[in-house]
Write a structure and sequence with these properties.
Its EC number is 2.1.3.2. It is an enzyme of class 2 (transferase). Keywords: Pyrimidine biosynthesis, Transferase. It catalyses: carbamoyl phosphate + L-aspartate = N-carbamoyl-L-aspartate + phosphate + H(+). By secondary structure, the chain is α/β, with parallel strands linked by helices. The protein has 2 domains: about 5-130 and about 315-325, Rossmann fold; about 135-305, Rossmann fold, CATH 3.40.50. It has 12 helices and 9 strands. It has helices at about 10-30, 55-65, 85-95, 110-115, 135-150, 190-200, 230-235, 245-250, 260-270, 270-275, 300, 310-325, and strands at about 45-50, 70-75, 100-105, 125-130, 175-180, 205, 225, 240, 285. Strands 7-6-5-8-9 form a 5-stranded parallel beta sheet, with helices on both faces. A 4-stranded parallel beta sheet has the order 2-1-3-4, sandwiched between helices. α6 (about 190-200) links the parallel β5 and β6 (about 205). α2 crosses α12 (about 310-325), α5 crosses α6 (about 190-200) and α5 packs across α12.
Length: about 325
């Protein structure tokens, strides 16, 4: 595989290989000198047509820690604001000697178009395309879950819940129970996680009001529920992942997806009461940025079992792994 465009494209073996490589990368980051010479002489271009903090900085840190040169492109203040096309921008970037392109774009399929239109001939990594896919986010979420999930439950076999140590090599998520809650309609994170987590053997339940679920849910390899409290009681999850309410996309479409922020929070927000109803070992996840007080309260976000900050750190390791496996001579295995 030359590109990383979709979580759906990954086989179980490929996903596990990326996660195992990410664990190896994480181990190197505990050294006094965090840089590896692996991609010295390579140039990675971050081509971001959408605003981003975590993803852009994470890819930049990952590339630099592998000793690659990094060129950061932002649509704001560039020729894109003057009407330049994606094709012309891509060819301009290639003329500067790019060895890989990380792209984030508001249009679904933009990363696939960039990879297969014949405009460039280097690996393309999808950093989010519209409401479609965000594969490295799903991988970092899976890495986080692998570190905290105990097959068979926290009281079966070697204790891992509450441990957070690196997952054993070759480990998938067979049997893990994950609830993903919130704005599924606008979420590339939800789609990518459903694809990847089910590939790794997890059981995924999506919880959302009907207005925030896309058409065609019957084709998704997951269960769907509308009552958050009932889902917690029925599923007894190992992890609950809260999704950001994407108000900017709702405003563009005219709004009207739920009666009020207060009503949404009462029905689909994670607070102290719902956190207490979850199994003691269950972790709280969120892709960020968080709307505190809307989809998650401050108490839940800062709970000792919240893994939100750990997810950010794991994102650097996962992106180091992806760049290594796609670009390094000795690591080109995807």
């Amino acid at each position: 595989m030359k590109h990383l465009l979709s979580a759906k494209d990954l086989s179980r073996d490929e996903a596990v290989m990326i996660l195992d490589t990410a664990e190896a990368m994480a181990a190197t980051q505990r050294h006094a000198v965090k840089k590896l010479p692996t991609l010295r002489g390579k140039t990675v271009v971050n081509l971001f047509f959408e605003d981003s903090t975590r993803t852009r900085l994470s890819f930049e840190a990952a590339a630099k820690r592998l000793s690659a040169d990094v060129i950061n492109f932002s649509a704001k203040g560039s020729s894109v604001s003057k009407g330049e096309s994606l094709k012309d921008t891509a060819q301009t970037i290639m003329a500067m000697g790019a060895d890989a392109v990380v792209v984030r774009h508001s249009a679904c399929g933009a990363a696939h178009l960039l990879a297969h239109a014949g405009w460039i001939d280097v690996p393309v990594l999808n950093a989010g395309d519209g409401t479609h896919q965000h594969p490295t986010q799903a991988l970092l979420d899976a890495m986080t879950l692998r570190r905290w999930y105990t097959p068979g439950g926290p009281d079966v076999g070697p204790a891992r819940a509450g441990d957070g140590s690196p997952a054993p090599q070759g480990r998938d998520l067979e049997g893990a129970r994950v609830i993903i809650v919130g704005d599924v309609l606008h979420s590339r994170v939800a789609r990518s996680n459903v694809d990847l987590l089910t590939t790794l053997g997890a059981r995924v339940t999506l919880v959302a009001p009907p207005t925030l679920l896309p058409v065609g849910m019957e084709d998704w390899p997951c269960e769907v529920a509308y009552d958050f409290d009932a889902a917690i009681a029925a599923v007894q999850p190992d992890a609950v992942m809260m999704l950001r309410v994407q108000r900017e996309r709702m405003s563009a479409a005219g709004g009207g997806y739920f009666p009020s922020p207060g009503e949404y929070s009462r029905g689909y927000g994670l607070g102290a009461v719902r956190r207490a109803a979850m199994p003691e070992h269950a972790i709280v996840m969120h892709p960020g940025p968080m709307n505190r007080g809307l989809e998650i309260t401050a108490d839940a976000a800062d709970d000792p079992r919240s893994r939100v900050v750990e997810q950010v750190g794991n994102g650097v390791s996962v992106r180091m792994a992806a760049l290594y496996l796609l670009l390094a001579d000795e690591g080109n295995q995807l």
